[in-house]
Design brief:
Strand content: 5-15%
Distance between the termini: 19 Å
Shape: elongated
Helix content: over 70%
Radius of gyration: 16 Å
């Protein structure tokens, strides 16, 4: 099952890279048109894309985590978080893009929601296994 989740995570990450490439080069896509047709679609898109990526990355890494300052941090969430920060900040240096703090906040909301879902799922799976 984890191999399937890892495959989904890799394919979804490749999809996100493709979307980023299109946005960076000024390309168009039916996805962009669809997102523009929804109120706050860009922010919802950020939240859903990076939330889902975080969730499948956490599950695909078998809920591996480390402690930092009394908090349990999932490796998958930290990796996605770092990627998001680098990607969003890089937009300040790409002529066809603009850095938007609200996009970064939407990414963070998606990541936090995914961490919450993963935490509950892991707790449930752990209690069922014992």
């Amino acid at each position: 099952m984890y191999k399937l989740i890892v495959t989904i995570a890799v394919v979804f990450f490749a999809f996100i890279l493709w979307v980023i490439y299109l946005a960076n080069t000024g390309g168009s896509s039916v996805f962009f048109d669809f997102i523009r047709s929804i109120p706050y679609g860009d922010k919802l898109g950020h939240m859903c894309l990076f939330g889902f990526l975080t969730l499948v990355t956490i599950v695909g890494s078998k809920f591996r985590a480390f402690s930092c300052g009394g908090f349990k941090l999932y490796y998958g969430a930290v990796l996605v978080g770092l990627f998001v920060v680098v990607e969003e900040l890089s937009q300040a240096f790409i002529p066809s893009r603009t850095f938007d703090f609200v996009d970064l906040a939407a990414d963070a909301v998606g990541i936090v929601i995914a961490v919450g879902i993963a935490y509950v799922a892991n707790k449930h799976l752990t209690s069922v296994a014992t």
